[in-house]
């Protein structure tokens, strides 16, 4: 494992991300199988771990915008769920659960201020939680998950809004309820995924599209080893995900591990906390 400074030299073009600090983060309700309001959460430690992630991305040469946290929205730290953008066009989120509904407005305000075209969603969708973009695969392809959160009707809307082919994939494991817990974009054209998180037909689609994909085990996925942020070379993931880190290194990527114990309690890891802004 190398330090962030050593890794920086090897970074590709820098990325632009959006993160929201976990100052109001806690687990008071359960909307996925990971969340248990009985298990205590150390919010101060969550803030420290989140800060370290932010510094790590900055240290790799990437730009990180901040979305101010709003009280009463403990899951707002999972900024990936707030929208999905390509070509400075943003398809807004519409959350499945009432507890998170108001987060969508905070994201909308951010993008409007940025001057990007914002499209108000009509169907339920949780942004980058269920939508992933591969710039070079077949001229720019969006992979879209459904089964637990995002309405498959939103997939068609995303294709019409962003003008990229959208491939719908059905998720079947309640612990891997968002696409970004079951599949990760590693570089412009390749992915890592855990096959059994998808329906048999969707597994077949994935095999056709990505014959050289990096395959993860269920253990890797349950350690949130697929909930990673990659710039095409450096891959940031939680320190629990040691098996996945080894597989990434063997495939030629540079894994960078961050402690993320507190935010895992909400059912999310590194990728859930980072939205990519594609201008
Ligand atoms: N507690 C949040 C929820 O259930 C976690 C969201 C995780 N985000 C993600 N992109 N997978 O909605």
Features of this protein?
L-arginine/glycine Amidinotransferase, Chain A; alpha/beta; binds arginine; disordered N terminus; 3-stranded mixed beta sheet; 279 residues; 9 helices
Q: How would you describe this structure to a colleague?
A:
The chain has one domain: L-arginine/glycine Amidinotransferase, Chain A (5-stranded Propeller). 28% of the residues lie in helices and 20% in strands. It is built from nine helices and 15 strands. The protein has helices at residues 4-8, 43-59, 103-114, 152-162, 179-182, 200-209, 218-222, 242-250, 261-264, and strands at 16-19, 63-66, 83-86, 89-92, 117-119, 131-134, 141-146, 166-170, 183-185, 191-193, 214-215, 229-230, 234-238, 254-258, 275-276. A three-stranded mixed β-sheet has the order 2-1-15, covered by helices on one side. The protein has a three-stranded mixed β-sheet with strand order 3-4-5, sandwiched between helices. β13, α8 and β14 (254-258) form a beta-alpha-beta unit. It is globular. Arginine binds at residues 31-32, 35, 75, 78, 80-81, 100, 129, 178, 180-181, 266-268, 272.
| Beta-strand proportion | 15-25%
The distinct ligands, each listed once, are: arginine
Mean pLDDT: 95
- The CATH superfamily name is L-arginine/glycine Amidinotransferase, Chain A
């Amino acid at each position: 494992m190398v330090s962030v400074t050593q890794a920086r030299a090897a970074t590709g073009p820098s990325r632009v991300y959006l993160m929201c600090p976990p100052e109001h983060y806690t687990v008071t309700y359960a909307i996925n199988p990971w969340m248990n309001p009985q298990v205590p959460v150390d919010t101060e430690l969550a803030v420290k771990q989140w800060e370290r992630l932010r510094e790590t991305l900055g240290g790799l040469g990437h730009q990180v915008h901040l979305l101010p946290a709003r009280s009463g929205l403990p899951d707002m730290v999972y900024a990936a769920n707030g929208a999905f953008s390509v070509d400075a066009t943003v398809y807004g989120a519409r959350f499945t659960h009432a507890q998170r509904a108001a987060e969508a407005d905070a994201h909308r305000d951010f993008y409007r201020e940025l001057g990007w075209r914002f499209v108000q969603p009509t169907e339920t969708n949780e942004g980058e939680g269920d939508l992933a973009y591969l710039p070079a695969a077949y001229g720019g392809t969006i992979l879209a998950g459904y089964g637990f959160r995002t309405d498959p009707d939103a997939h068609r809307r995303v294709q019409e809004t962003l003008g990229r082919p959208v491939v719908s994939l059905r998720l079947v494991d309640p612990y891997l309820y968002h696409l970004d817990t079951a599949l990760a974009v590693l570089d412009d054209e390749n992915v890592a995924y855990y096959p059994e998180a998808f329906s048999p037909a969707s597994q077949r689609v994935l095999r056709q599209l990505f014959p050289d994909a990096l395959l993860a085990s269920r253990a890797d996925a349950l350690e949130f080893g697929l909930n990673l942020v990659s710039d095409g070379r450096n891959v940031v993931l939680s320190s629990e995900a040691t098996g996945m880190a080894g597989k990434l290194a063997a495939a030629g990527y540079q894994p960078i591990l961050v402690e993320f114990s507190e935010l895992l309690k909400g059912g999310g890891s590194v990728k859930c906390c980072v939205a990519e802004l594609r201008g």
